[in-house]
Structures are given as C-alpha cells and as structure tokens.
Amino acid sequence: MKTINVLLVSGLVTIEHQSRKLNERLRELLEATGRFQVAIVEEFRHITPEFLEPYDVLLINYDGKLLPTQPARRFGEQTEHVIYDFVAQGKGIIFYHSSIWVDPHWPDEWRKLLGGYCAMDQGCRRCPKDDHIVETMDPDHPITKGIDAKWMNVFDDLFTQLIIHPEAKMHVLASIYDNIDFYRVPGFPPAHHPAAIPDGDLAKMPGVNQYTPVIWTNEYGKGRVFVTSIGHWEALDRFNFITMFVRGCEWAATGEVTLQKPDRSGDNRLKLFPYY
Asked: What is the pLDDT of residues 194-246, one digit of tens each?
C-alpha cells in the first residue's frame, strides 16, 4: 500500500497550544500506523505548487497569533491560493484544533475551505467547561465506523457557535452538547477569550443548549477536507479520538479508510502511546 506523504504546517500558535511536542506526537501517531510519512514546517509563506507536489495531504496546526484577541498573521495570498489549488485538484487538507479560528481579514475562500469555522468578531466563544461527552453523529461513515456512540474527552476546548459557510459541503461526524449550565461558573467570560452575553442572560447566547459540531468533513473541488476542533494533548490518549484522527487523515489524502482502532487485546494492553 502506498505511503501517504503528510506535510504538517505549524509555527505561530496561541500560547496554550504552543508545543512542538504536540506536533511530534501527531507525527509519531501517524507514522506508527505504517500508513504515513510526516514532514513538519514552521514557516509557510511564499509556498509554490512545486514545493507541495510531493505531498498528498496538508495538516494545519496554525493560529497565526500568540493570544486569541490578537490579529492573526495569514499565510499570505500566494500560499493560500496554492493551498486552494492543491486541494481543489484532488488532494487533501486537515485542520487541527484552534486552526478553525479566522480573523476578519481572512478571505471568504479560506472559510469555504474549512466548511465550518469560528470567528471572535462573529460571536463564537470557548466554553469554560474542560471535560465533555463527545457524541458520534454518523456511525456509518468510514471515519467513525466502530467508534463509540458517546465517549469522554478531557482537558480540551469546546469552540461553540460554529459558523457554516453557505457553500460548504460539510458532513458532521461528531458533536458536543453545549449546555447552558457549563457557563454558570465564576470568571466567565475570561478577558483573553471574550464572549457576548445579550442582556446579561446566558440563555440568550447563540448556540447554547444546542449541539456544536467538533469533527467534520468538507468537500472542496475534487479534494477532501477533514477538521477536528478538539485536540489537546490529552485527546491523543483517547482511543476514539486517535482512531478518528488517523482515519480522517487517511480519508483526506485518499478518499478511503483502511485503518482500524488500536488493538488492545492480550499483551497489547501494556503498550504505551501511540498504541499502533
């Protein structure tokens, strides 16, 4: 079976996500399956089509800023257009965790590529609760087949009031219910991640007491997009998450899924991450 070549694009990310160890952990997980070869870059401006030619899929773990309230640094029009063409011509892209956030000056085409996105200027917020039950929305998709109907994710971000691009061909794989009780805590909203509370009434916040998509796919031209808005360090010890992640990468690159959950039977229960 052909090796899938992945280019993991990182660099400038917000402080709480700023860990080269996470990028190495993602590389270790993907390569442990025997399906991927991963290269990592931390500067991605002025990219050419020739530079991307060897790769099957891009993995974006990039915020473009240190604090959520700061303006983000884009990749630049040249690189962004190369990315659009790369995907539209039949290759894949993965957006990881906080890379779903866009600033007002990020172009509409980038939002269309994401399918669903968050924007602070449009009222999106971070839920103050850290532990959540993730629910599988489509148990029959190749990425989710065999995944538990409900599973716990801990010490992670829930980005809510996701905005769906009107031209997106988005398919939701997993969601979290954004309960109003999650917000009845001291210190909400924090200064570094403001949120609008209309008339001071939590019940009037858009999207509250509704399901928020956290893992989805999108179609862009002939290519495939896989997005996960969850993905802190601890998520990579969750078998449901890592299975969906490696499958999502495989699907984005090839349109097919061959990877299974890690086998924890017998002595395999003694294996440490990456379990494969």
From this structure: 888 999 999 999 889 999 999 999 999 999 999 999 999 999 999 999 999 99
Q: Which residue has the tokens 């995907």?
A: 87
Query: Which pLDDT value is given to residue 18?
Result: 66
Residue 100: how many other CB atoms lie within 10 Å: 25
Q: Are strands 4-9 and 57-60 parallel, antiparallel or unpaired?
A: parallel
Backbone angles phi, psi at 212, to 5 degrees: -110, 120
Tokens 């862009």 appear where? Answer: 220
Give CA–CA dist 4/7, Å, rounded: 10
Q: Return d(Cα 253, Cα 231) in angstroms, integer.
A: 20
Which two three-digit tokens encode residue 26?
């993602």
CA 192 vs CA 96, 125, 158, 198: distances in Å = 21, 11, 15, 19
Q: Does pTM top 0.90 for this prediction?
A: yes
* pLDDT score at 219: 98
Looking only at the bridges linking them, the beta strands covering 171-178 and 210-220 are antiparallel
Burial class (CB in 10 A: 0-12, 13-18, 19+), 12: middle
Instruction: Please tell me the number of Cα atoms within 13 Å of 87 on its side-chain side.
Output: 25
Report residues of the chain scoring pLDDT below 70: 18-19
Tokens of 74: 């884009």
